[in-house]
């Protein structure tokens, strides 16, 4: 549900960059030209021995990957072209978003998290910073707390731990060693509160780090501007 809302919100925020134009953004150190070349060339590596149709498909994939990396290689605080990394969706969510609702997201981080379109927009922003796992973990913990079945609770707890908390987990969140080990001990007898400490750490990290940047981002400012235009 959140993913669909994110696609709809962000698709309505900005217009795609003109063909062949370079977004006026500053490249961060986290994504270098070498990494872009490495990733895009990986498509070509799989084309050896393929028929012409497969090669044409690979070329289109290669071009698509370059477009995505071109946008992701820019700082999210200034880059406005998010459509390159999101699938096309009808602009339905934006039409239901009022200026008052979007403005309230700046009141506090918890207000943002309490609004489904706020979560959707924040998730899309975090994707540009390669840190969406923090929000996904926080949301997984919120959903986990609603579990009533003891059997499901145990399996869900281990799934969340293995996906987000364990060392070298696929979507490992940034928490300290002590918190990670305390959470590991909690897996011996999982309860509804077994992730509270880790969830609190991740919440604090997003609130102090990512949330202020989101409020300064062109994406959020464009959202406010467009919602105001609909009222005028």
From TrEMBL:
SMART domains cross-referenced by the UniProt entry: RGS
Subcellular location: Cell membrane; Cell projection, Dendrite; Nucleus; Perikaryon
Record's GO cellular component terms: dendrite; nucleus; perikaryon; plasma membrane
SUPFAM superfamilies: Regulator of G-protein signaling, RGS
Record keyword Nucleus present: yes
One Pfam family, short name: RGS
Major subcellular location class: membrane
Annotated RGS domain residues: 108-224
Topology in membrane: Peripheral membrane protein
Keyword terms, alphabetized: Cell membrane, Cell projection, Membrane, Nucleus, Signal transduction inhibitor
Keyword flag Membrane: yes
Name of the protein described by the UniProt record: Regulator of G-protein signaling 8
Gene label: RGS8
